[in-house]
Design goal:
By secondary structure, the protein is of the alpha+beta class. The protein folds into 2 domains: 12-99, no CATH class; 103-257, no CATH class. The chain contains 12 helices and 4 strands. The protein has helices spanning 12-30, 33-40, 44-54, 60-70, 75-82, 86-91, 102-127, 131-140, 183-195, 213-222, 230-235, 244-257, and strands at residues 146-147, 153-160, 166-174, 177-182. It has a 4-stranded antiparallel beta sheet with strand order 1-2-3-4. It is elongated, with a radius of gyration of 22 Å. It starts with 11 loop residues before the first helix and ends with a helix.
């Protein structure tokens, strides 16, 4: 009798393919390695290698390295021809082995699950902008690495009360400091943002004098609720536009055809 597998549900190949798919999808939205790396909590160099493996990242250097490798050149020969270091050459080549480390595979599986969940709740929010769908987005984005308009990193969490339900208060983690955002402040900013009907919000003050607005502002942008001028997005290292409004319009056209 064959020995039972220690991890019968562990499919490293499936996890690797899923990771390649979601990383490529995210990169198509952001167009930047660092922003995609931020999305998954993975280094930009590893993101680049994943994208090269998926066949969606190209640059003059990466194409040259892969052309030389495909022609049968060794890593040492490629290094001499390109002038790159050995680790740099390897970084421009696709993965040839699936990650079988259980701990790493488990972490990647969680990254895939979280990314897809966030995509789903934001698509729901775009389809029906209500306070309920906004709350689902807030719940899903706990622990996400946000940045304020002044490029200060922060994340937040929600604490559970009785009945294991989340309290309607965001606990913002600013390194060693903690701040609280009342849910009512978030709702005020949300409703005011909706009243702008897609008008660009250049400054966080444009949403009103609301407690916690420096944190709410980038969250509303990340959720696709407000838009900002390209210059503001570039200065803050945000994508010029998240694609959720596009998803919403595509969904409507699909429904109309049906």
């Amino acid at each position: 009798m064959a020995k039972p597998k220690k991890k019968p549900d562990y499919d490293a190949n499936k996890i690797m393919k899923g990771l390649l798919d979601v990383v490529a999808e995210s990169y198509e939205q952001t167009g930047e390695l660092k922003l995609t790396a931020q999305e998954f909590g993975i280094s930009a160099l590893k993101i680049r290698k994943l994208l090269i493996t998926a066949g969606v990242y190209h640059s003059e250097v990466s194409d040259k390295v892969n052309m030389l490798y495909a022609s049968g050149k060794s890593l040492e020969e490629i290094r001499r021809i390109t002038g790159l270091g050995r680790s740099s050459v390897n970084g421009y080549l696709p993965y040839t082995k699936v990650i079988y480390n259980p701990k790493e595979a488990s972490l990647n599986a969680e990254r895939i699950r979280m990314y897809r969940r966030r995509r789903r709740v934001l698509a729901d929010l775009m389809d029906d902008m209500t306070i309920e769908t906004l709350w689902e987005a807030v719940v899903a984005f706990q622990g996400y690495p946000f940045y304020t308009a002044s490029r200060l990193p922060f994340a937040y969490e929600l604490r559970k009360g009785r009945g294991a339900e989340y309290n309607r208060e965001l606990i913002v983690d600013r390194r060693k400091e903690h701040e609280h955002i009342d849910w009512n402040s978030f709702k005020v900013a949300f409703y005011y943002a909706l009243s702008l009907h897609g008008k660009e919000v250049e400054r966080l003050e444009d949403l009103g004098d609301i407690p916690g607005i420096s944190y709410i502002y980038p969250m509303l942008y990340r959720f696709g609720i407000i838009n900002v001028p390209d210059a503001v997005a570039e200065r803050n290292r945000w994508p010029s536009r998240f694609c959720y409004f596009e998803l919403r319009s595509k969904g409507k056209k699909k429904n109309e055809r049906a």
